[in-house]
Amino acid sequence: MKIKYFIITVIAFITMSLLTGFYMNQDAKVKVQQDNGKQAHQGLKKVKTGFEHEWQEFKNDAELKINANEKRIAEFKVKIKTEGKEFKAKYDKDVVVLEQKNTGLKKKINEFKFESKDKWVEFKNGFNKDMDVVGKSIKDLFAKKD
Questions:
Q1: Mind listing the pLDDT tens digit for each residue in 97-134?
Q2: Which of 18, 43, 78, 128 has its CA 20 to 30 A from that of 104?
Q3: Rounded Cα–Cα distance for residues 65 and 135 (Å)
Q4: What is the C-alpha separation between 97 and 36, in angstroms, rounded?
Q5: In terms of pTM, does the model score above 0.85?
Protein backbone atom coordinates (compact mmCIF):
# COMPACT_ATOMS: atom_id res chain seq x y z
CA MET A 1 0.00 0.00 0.00
CA LYS A 2 2.89 2.33 0.85
CA ILE A 3 4.44 1.71 -2.58
CA LYS A 4 1.15 2.65 -4.25
CA TYR A 5 1.03 6.01 -2.40
CA PHE A 6 4.71 6.56 -3.09
CA ILE A 7 4.22 6.00 -6.87
CA ILE A 8 1.18 8.33 -6.94
CA THR A 9 3.17 10.98 -5.04
CA VAL A 10 6.12 10.68 -7.44
CA ILE A 11 3.83 10.90 -10.48
CA ALA A 12 2.08 13.95 -9.00
CA PHE A 13 5.45 15.57 -8.24
CA ILE A 14 6.73 14.95 -11.80
CA THR A 15 3.47 16.24 -13.30
CA MET A 16 3.59 19.42 -11.19
CA SER A 17 7.23 19.97 -12.12
CA LEU A 18 6.45 19.67 -15.82
CA LEU A 19 3.43 21.95 -15.64
CA THR A 20 5.36 24.56 -13.67
CA GLY A 21 8.19 24.40 -16.22
CA PHE A 22 5.77 24.90 -19.12
CA TYR A 23 4.16 27.83 -17.33
CA MET A 24 7.53 29.50 -16.70
CA ASN A 25 8.53 28.89 -20.31
CA GLN A 26 5.28 30.53 -21.47
CA ASP A 27 6.04 33.62 -19.36
CA ALA A 28 9.46 33.89 -20.98
CA LYS A 29 7.90 33.68 -24.46
CA VAL A 30 5.39 36.41 -23.61
CA LYS A 31 8.19 38.64 -22.34
CA VAL A 32 10.21 38.07 -25.53
CA GLN A 33 7.16 38.93 -27.66
CA GLN A 34 6.57 42.11 -25.65
CA ASP A 35 10.20 43.11 -26.15
CA ASN A 36 9.89 42.45 -29.88
CA GLY A 37 6.72 44.55 -29.95
CA LYS A 38 8.51 47.44 -28.22
CA GLN A 39 11.38 47.23 -30.71
CA ALA A 40 8.95 47.22 -33.62
CA HIS A 41 7.17 50.24 -32.15
CA GLN A 42 10.48 52.08 -31.80
CA GLY A 43 11.32 51.19 -35.39
CA LEU A 44 7.98 52.59 -36.53
CA LYS A 45 8.67 55.78 -34.57
CA LYS A 46 11.99 56.17 -36.39
CA VAL A 47 10.30 55.62 -39.74
CA LYS A 48 7.58 58.14 -38.84
CA THR A 49 10.18 60.69 -37.73
CA GLY A 50 11.99 60.41 -41.05
CA PHE A 51 8.64 60.48 -42.79
CA GLU A 52 7.53 63.67 -41.01
CA HIS A 53 10.31 65.74 -42.55
CA GLU A 54 9.79 64.29 -46.01
CA TRP A 55 6.00 64.66 -45.66
CA GLN A 56 6.22 68.36 -44.71
CA GLU A 57 8.46 69.10 -47.70
CA PHE A 58 6.15 67.19 -50.01
CA LYS A 59 3.01 68.82 -48.61
CA ASN A 60 4.45 72.34 -48.81
CA ASP A 61 5.55 71.78 -52.39
CA ALA A 62 2.15 70.33 -53.33
CA GLU A 63 0.30 73.22 -51.71
CA LEU A 64 2.44 75.71 -53.64
CA LYS A 65 1.59 73.95 -56.90
CA ILE A 66 -2.11 73.77 -56.01
CA ASN A 67 -2.15 77.48 -55.16
CA ALA A 68 -0.37 78.28 -58.43
CA ASN A 69 -3.00 76.23 -60.29
CA GLU A 70 -5.78 78.13 -58.49
CA LYS A 71 -4.19 81.44 -59.45
CA ARG A 72 -3.88 80.44 -63.11
CA ILE A 73 -7.48 79.20 -63.16
CA ALA A 74 -8.64 82.49 -61.63
CA GLU A 75 -6.69 84.42 -64.28
CA PHE A 76 -8.28 82.34 -67.00
CA LYS A 77 -11.74 82.96 -65.52
CA VAL A 78 -11.13 86.71 -65.73
CA LYS A 79 -10.09 86.37 -69.37
CA ILE A 80 -13.20 84.31 -70.10
CA LYS A 81 -15.41 87.10 -68.73
CA THR A 82 -13.69 89.75 -70.84
CA GLU A 83 -13.55 87.82 -74.11
CA GLY A 84 -17.18 87.19 -74.99
CA LYS A 85 -20.03 84.69 -74.93
CA GLU A 86 -18.67 82.32 -77.56
CA PHE A 87 -15.31 82.10 -75.82
CA LYS A 88 -17.03 81.67 -72.45
CA ALA A 89 -19.25 78.86 -73.70
CA LYS A 90 -16.25 77.10 -75.21
CA TYR A 91 -14.04 77.12 -72.10
CA ASP A 92 -16.40 77.41 -69.13
CA LYS A 93 -16.83 73.64 -68.67
CA ASP A 94 -13.11 73.00 -68.94
CA VAL A 95 -12.40 75.55 -66.23
CA VAL A 96 -14.99 73.99 -63.89
CA VAL A 97 -13.47 70.52 -64.40
CA LEU A 98 -9.97 71.84 -63.68
CA GLU A 99 -11.20 73.58 -60.53
CA GLN A 100 -12.77 70.34 -59.32
CA LYS A 101 -9.61 68.36 -60.00
CA ASN A 102 -7.48 70.95 -58.20
CA THR A 103 -9.88 70.97 -55.23
CA GLY A 104 -9.74 67.15 -55.21
CA LEU A 105 -5.94 67.30 -55.00
CA LYS A 106 -6.12 69.72 -52.08
CA LYS A 107 -8.58 67.44 -50.27
CA LYS A 108 -6.44 64.37 -51.01
CA ILE A 109 -3.28 65.94 -49.57
CA ASN A 110 -5.10 67.11 -46.43
CA GLU A 111 -6.72 63.71 -45.75
CA PHE A 112 -3.63 61.53 -46.15
CA LYS A 113 -2.57 59.64 -43.01
CA PHE A 114 0.72 57.75 -42.75
CA GLU A 115 0.24 54.01 -42.31
CA SER A 116 3.35 52.52 -43.86
CA LYS A 117 6.24 53.46 -46.10
CA ASP A 118 4.77 51.44 -48.99
CA LYS A 119 1.46 53.28 -48.83
CA TRP A 120 3.32 56.60 -48.59
CA VAL A 121 5.32 55.85 -51.73
CA GLU A 122 2.15 54.72 -53.52
CA PHE A 123 0.31 57.90 -52.45
CA LYS A 124 3.21 60.15 -53.45
CA ASN A 125 3.52 58.60 -56.90
CA GLY A 126 -0.23 58.74 -57.53
CA PHE A 127 -0.51 62.31 -56.24
CA ASN A 128 2.41 63.50 -58.38
CA LYS A 129 0.86 61.87 -61.42
CA ASP A 130 -2.50 63.57 -60.73
CA MET A 131 -0.76 66.90 -60.12
CA ASP A 132 1.08 66.61 -63.44
CA VAL A 133 -2.19 65.87 -65.25
CA VAL A 134 -3.86 68.96 -63.79
CA GLY A 135 -0.84 71.15 -64.53
CA LYS A 136 -0.66 69.90 -68.11
CA SER A 137 -4.39 70.44 -68.57
CA ILE A 138 -4.07 74.04 -67.40
CA LYS A 139 -1.15 74.65 -69.77
CA ASP A 140 -3.09 73.06 -72.63
CA LEU A 141 -6.09 75.25 -71.84
CA PHE A 142 -3.96 78.38 -71.98
CA ALA A 143 -2.40 77.15 -75.24
CA LYS A 144 -5.85 76.62 -76.82
CA LYS A 145 -6.95 80.09 -75.84
CA ASP A 146 -4.12 81.73 -77.73
A1: 888 888 998 899 888 887 777 888 888 899 889 989 88
A2: 78
A3: 8
A4: 50
A5: no
